[in-house]
Amino acid sequence: MDYSVSIARQPSAAMQLALYRIVQESLTNVLRHAQATRAHVELAQDDAGIRLAISDNGAGAAAARSDAGNGILGMTERAELLGGTLTAGNRRDGGFQVTVLLPEVP
């Protein structure tokens, strides 16, 4: 696993917790379902807010079990509670990616 962080301002405590839990759930999903050999976490900030992307080089959504649970739903709810969005799906070049966009709160 590797990561990159480009943050100029510290996010609120609520945003930090949501980001932490989303990364935690995403990496758990990579370990349990993806059959991946590599994962990447990218956290960046600009005037619009924070962007978090967790990607892997695994088998994509086809590797998920039918009883996989509610992880993506829970991550989506965390993002929406802060006014943000979460998308999750297969990458064009293989693997899976979770992307979170959270607006900057003044």
Automatic annotation (TrEMBL):
Catalytically driven reaction(s): ATP + protein L-histidine = ADP + protein N-phospho-L-histidine
CDD domains attached to this UniProt entry: HATPase_UhpB-NarQ-NarX-like
Family annotation (InterPro entries): HATPase_C_sf (IPR036890), HATPase_dom (IPR003594), Sensor_HK_TwoCompSys (IPR050482)
Alphabetical UniProt keywords: Kinase, Transferase, Two-component regulatory system
Gene3D superfamilies named among the record's database cross-references: Histidine kinase-like ATPase, C-terminal domain (3.30.565.10)
One GO molecular-function entry: protein histidine kinase activity
SUPFAM superfamilies, per the entry: ATPase domain of HSP90 chaperone/DNA topoisomerase II/histidine kinase
Any single biological process term in GO: phosphorelay signal transduction system
E.C. designation(s): 2.7.13.3
Domain Histidine kinase/HSP90-like ATPase: 16-104
Top-rank lineage group of the source organism: Bacteria
One family name in Pfam for this protein: HATPase_c
Transmembrane segments: none
PANTHER family linked to this entry: NITRATE/NITRITE SENSOR PROTEIN NARX-RELATED, NITRATE_NITRITE SENSOR PROTEIN NARQ
Protein name, entry field: histidine kinase
